[in-house]
Every structure is written in C-alpha cells, then in structure tokens.
Request: fold
Amino acid sequence: MTFSRREFIKRISAASLVMAGGNVIRLSAADVASVQKNSSLRFVIASDGHYGEKGTESDLFYETLIKQVSGFHADNKLDFCVINGDIIHDEKEFLITAKNHLDKLPLKYYVTKGNHDKVSDAYWKEVWGMPVNHDVNIKNNTFLMATTSNEKGEYLSPDLNWLKVKLDANKKQDNVFIFIHIPQMKWTKHAIETPAFFELLKQYKNVRGVFHGHEHAEDGVKMAENIPFMFDSHFGGSWGTTYRGFRVVELVKRNSFLTYIMNPTEKINQAAF
Reply:
C-alpha cells in the first residue's frame, strides 16, 4: 500500500506548523503537502499497541500499523520511527512477540517504556538492545527517550538528572525532541504533576517538542513554556479515539517543524510548529 497525493490529503489530520519560537500555525492538508517539500528529516511516532490485551485483535493492530507506516515510508521516506510506550499489555511473555512484529518495519525504530510494559529495566534492554533511557543524534538533532514507569506499572517522572546531563551535552544541537509515555502535567485524567520537569525544559531553548502516549483519546497539542507537547492517540488497545493512527513530524527550515496525524479513515488534528 502506498499513498497517492489524493490519498495523503484524505488521510491527514491535526496538522500544525511549529515555529522555532513556539508559535503554532494550523494548516490544511493541502498546506501540509506544500510545506513538506522543504523537509530535511521525517519521523513517525506511534504508541499504545497494548499487545496481549484480552478481547482485542492485537496481531491485527500491529500488522495494520506495520502496513500503514510501510506504505507511508514508500512515498515519504522516513528516517526512523518511535514506539512511545505501552507496547504490551502487562504480561512479560508478550514482549518478544510484539518485537517480532515491529522488526518488520522497513526502517530503524526506537522504543520507550510505558506503564503497561511491566518488565524489569534489565529485561527491557536485553530484548530491545537499548536501555530505558537513551539518546540518539541524527543530522544535528538530538532525540531523548526516557521511561516514566517501572516493572510495577507505576506512573513516574522521568529521570531529571539524566535529562539534565543529556540536555547540557546537546546545547549546541539545532533541535532536541523528548519522548516520554506519561504526561507530566494534569492536562488529562491519567497524567501526573512534575513541575520540575517543566522548570528544567525551559532552560534549554533548543527543546522543540515533547511527545506523549498513554492518553488514547488525545491526539492534539498542549503548550507549556512555549514548547508543544504532542499526543498520538493509539494504534492498539480497546479504548480511545475511534481511529488508530500515528503522528508524523517533518523538520523544515529555520528549526521549525511540521506535524500531523495519519488516520487510516479520515482527516484529523493537523498542526505545524
């Protein structure tokens, strides 16, 4: 499956252009197709596959995500993908099967740990080959991926000491993006409050955006300290938005970025930063 321009415009939603200073411009699908001509880097975020949740079609959810991302990648080359938490639904035995599905993605992917990923940090690293807190540098951009839970499934703050070390080390990068599963402000019912997280981020002007999973019914953008905090709904599980999709981010000139949701059935939530 590939996406023609017509199909692309039909499936895109929740599009925004995010400027370097934090201003957000809402875009139409046609605007997105025009702006993305200047993309220098493109990646996808999906979350909340909940492999193994009883009463759900877990294999179908994963197969559908792989098909959709692969089809998008065929026409709009992606640099990488992030699966932002709740890859499985509670049981350790599901993790290898979920990984086998994700290994079918035709591009590099990274993972973060969510509250339903109830395995030890050591086992997580053994399976994925990356620790629960890790960083990636691509084309003068830094991507920080941190855990917000533990083997018990508790809601936690990210490791702020680790984040500070990484933010200090990457002050000269053009852009820094952060991926954590659980929101750290009570925007939503299942979020927590960590004021120190926001105090830390506002010290670094090159933090361009933060990505959350966890809240399946959320597919929009919240703002704090002139930083956009973006949600991508879900691609699995038994609750949330009526569609299952993924978020696309495209870096454009002057440290701005375009972001939108790809929905298999209808347009939703377009935005650019």
In short: Helices lie at 5-11, 29-35, 58-75, 95-102, 121-128, 160-169, 195-201. Residues 265-273 have pLDDT under 50 and may be disordered. The longest helix spans residues 58-75. The first strand starts at residue 12 and ends at 18.
